[in-house]
Amino acid sequence: MNQAAAPVPPEAPSAMDALVVAIAERQDREAFARLFGYFAPRVKGFLMRRGANAGLAEEIAQETMLSVWRKASHFSPGRGTASTWVFTIARNLAVDRMRRDGPQPEAEMEPAEEAAVESAEAALISVEREQRLRAALATLSPEQGTILRLSFFQDRPHSEVATELGIPLGTVKSRIRLAIARLRLLLDDLS
């Protein structure tokens, strides 16, 4: 596969979402080239780890990216990330191919390989969630951010946080409650 286009950095799922939206709205070839450069080799690798030979994985990866171009208007950033959407298309195309052509002997996966694929998918989802959480945390006020870091990430009791910051315990609890409510609101909007 030709990877001439600059790949989208993996730490920018919202940038990938924006590229799919650009394809849907303007048939943006540059956006498609960037998505193709990023996803095509990953989809091929994903399919090969699931047992497809290199030729079949390449073919399904190409079909996947063609579907991304054709069906970009069906993508909804509110329902999931571009990454999840693209890999769902790839998986569905692979299943359709398997149903149509029948199982191939080399398509069988060892349980350890299947677990590795599932753990890779889980890791990707975890990274995306962590990135969304970090973005949401960055929107909090400095006071709320400091209190959440001390309370949750350093696992310090509220009374110790209050003493360290020189503020009343009730203020600590109130800021934590407001910060968590804001994070919930932001993360629900991103889901």
List the helices and strands and how they pair.
Elements: H1 13-26, H2 29-49, H3 54-71, H4 82-101, H5 111-138, H6 142-153, H7 158-165, H8 169-190
Helix pairs in contact: 1-2, 2-3, 3-4, 5-8, 6-8, 7-8
Briefly note the structural class of the backbone: mainly alpha
Q: Note the total helix count.
A: 8
Mean pLDDT across all amino acids: 80
- Sketch the major β-sheet: none
Q: Name the shape in a single word.
A: elongated
Quaternary state, please?
single chain
Instruction: Report the helical percentage.
Output: over 70%
Task: Kindly report how far apart the N and C termini lie.
Answer: 32 Å
How large, in whole angstroms, is the Cα Rg?
22 Å
Low-confidence stretches: 1-11
List the secondary-structure elements in sequence, H or E. Answer: HHHHHHHH
User: Could you tell me the number of beta strands?
Assistant: 0
Q: Name the beta content range.
A: under 5%
Structure write-up:
- This protein is an all-alpha fold.
- The protein is 75% helix and 0% strand.
- It is built from eight helices and no strands.
- The chain is elongated, with a radius of gyration of 22 Å.
Gist?
The chain has 191 residues and is mainly α. It has helices at residues 13-26, 29-49, 54-71, 82-101, 111-138, 142-153, 158-165, 169-190.
Overview features:
disordered N terminus, mainly alpha, 75% helix, 191 residues, single chain, 0% strand
